[in-house]
Amino acid sequence: MRGLREGDTVRGMAPPVRYAVSWLNARCSETEVDVARQPPWDATVTYGAVGGTKAPDLMAFPPTGFRPFEQRSRIGHGARRWEHAWQSTMSWGIQRASGMRVQLHESPAEVTEGTYTPVSFDRDGRPQLVAGSTEDGEVVYGAEGQSFIAPGDTALLVVPFLFVGVHAPCRVIYVIDEPNRKGFAYGTLPGHPEDGEEAFIVDQTEDGSVWLTIRSFSRPGGWQWWAVYPVLRCAQAVITRRYFRALSDPLG
Q1: Packing angle between helix 229-248 and helix 79-89, nearest 10 degrees?
Q2: Rounded Cα–Cα distance for residues 97 and 93 (Å)
Q3: Which residues are paired to 214 by β-bridges?
Q4: Which residues face 105 on adjacent strands?
Q5: Is residue 6 situated within a structural domain?
Q6: Residue range 139-194, pLDDT digits in tens
Q7: What angle do CA 96, 98, 99 make, to 5 degrees?
Q8: Are 172 and 153 in contact (CB under 8 A)?
Q9: Among 41, 46, 180, 59, residue whose Cα is nearest residue 122
Q10: Which InterPro entries match (predicted)?
Q11: Which helix (H) or strand (E) holds 57?
Q12: Structural domains in the chain (count)
């Protein structure tokens, strides 16, 4: 996470907020050292229920010790909205439009080759390619030159939080690529403020409506984050609203 920049200040803040900012600032250098010592692609996820966001009964039976979440909202209508929604989703566009910086880390071949890529089928039963690759495994790019997400991709999300940039390393666990339903889920890596998994799925229904569904299960990633859990929950709510707004804003 990034510390306070020159000219930033915590003066005038309420004592609890001032304490939280000072604590986060002190954690910056520690996290940066950890990331430098172990590159994100070399780390394992920090939870056991990998792929758990696919479970239909997630809200009723989440992994033990984790808080489940699910929200589904209509973000628009029509072919143009659908193209914008799925291409943004599959290229980290939701996160970028929500104010995060996304730093992609290229993984060695042994990491990506060992990652399971699910096969989807069209209405006639023909297997479909994942949006991010061709038959030869080459990366596919969107209309604006952005590369599409693929299973095994590793990224460092820099999340604005209490005047600092919190580092949130993650790995793409699975990708959904169906004709009218696309998305992905990422799992948390060491250094992320939370442990758990989050899925972003867009779909278009028969009436042309476009929807975004976010599903997750999470818990604070250590005692330090448990100490500021109420603030963390508030930040989660704000970020989630930004996610939905990122895809529902008027198209240019």
Answers
A1: 140
A2: 6
A3: 71, 200
A4: 154
A5: no
A6: 555 555 578 999 999 999 999 877 788 899 999 999 999 999 999 999 999 999 99
A7: 70
A8: yes
A9: 180
A10: DUF1990
A11: none
A12: 1
Q: What is the length of the chain?
A: 252
- Cα–Cα–Cα angle for 216, 221, 225, nearest 5°? 110
pTM of the model: 0.78
What residue type is assigned to position 45 of the chain? Answer: V
Residue 8 lies in a domain: no
Q: For residue 38, give the CATH number of its domain.
A: 3.30.530.20
DSSP single-letter state for residue 155: E
Rounded CA-CA distance 67/9 in Å is 34
Domain residue limits at 159: 15-248
Residues ≥6 apart with Cβ < 8 Å to 100: 157, 158, 159, 160
In whole angstroms, give the CA distance from residue 185 to residue 176.
9
d(CA 247, CA 86): 9
The encoded tokens of residue 165 equal 């940039």
| End-to-end alpha carbon distance in the chain | 33
Asked if residue 151 is part of any domain, the answer here is yes
Distance separating alpha carbons of residues 214 and 222, to the nearest angstrom: 24
Q: What are the pLDDT digits (tens) for 134-149?
A: 444 455 555 555 789 9
Tokens of 6: 């020159």
What pairing do the DSSP bridges indicate for beta strands 154-161 and 120-121? unpaired
In a domain, 5, yes or no: no
